[in-house]
Amino acid sequence: MRREIRTAALTAILLVPLITSAPADWRALNSAQPAASYTYRGTIRAVNARTGTLELITGVGMSLRVVRMTTAPTTQLVAAGGAPRLADLKPGDVVRTECRRTPTGLVADRIEKLAVSTP
Questions:
Q1: Domain contains 59
Q2: Which stretches within 24-92 are classed as H helix?
Q3: Which of 13, 46, 92, 116 would suit a FRET pair with 27, their CA atoms being 20 to 30 Å apart?
Q4: Residue 113 CA, distance from chain mean position
Q5: Residue 16 CA from chain centroid, whole number
Q6: Residue 114's closest CA among 36, 56, 64?
Q7: Alpha-carbon distance values, 37 to 4, 12, 34, 86 (Å)
């Protein structure tokens, strides 16, 4: 009898943290959280204004990475000389992008063309 009580007590002690830390509904938690925001700074590798896609080359540690993203109609384009169009960006331009992850991939919310000084 004592052994059964100890086993039940030990089981309860081990299971209580798991039960209390588990979310009640995963869908409710995921929908309540805002989409994660990412900021990339890199050199434009390719631009397709017709499809609204952009490829950046960014530095990650000691390596380079190509990041593909799409633009939305609400994407803000910012440059020192005014508000450019996506077609005005060309390979070799340095940009800073703020984007978010969606089920279809990265979507740019803001693209800022940075002025680069030549030595």
A1: yes
A2: 26-32
A3: 13
A4: 19
A5: 35
A6: 56
A7: 52, 40, 9, 21
Q: Would you say residue 118 lies in a domain? A: no
Of 97, 37, 36, 40, which Cα lies nearest the Cα of 71?
97
pLDDT tens profile 71-102: 998 888 888 777 678 888 899 999 999 999 98
Neighbour count for residue 2 (Cβ, 10 Å): 6
Phi and psi (nearest 5°) for 50? -65, -45
pLDDT in tens, 41-67: 999 999 998 999 999 999 888 899 999
In the chain, the number of structural domains is: 2
Q: pTM for this structure?
A: 0.66
Count the residues in the chain: 119
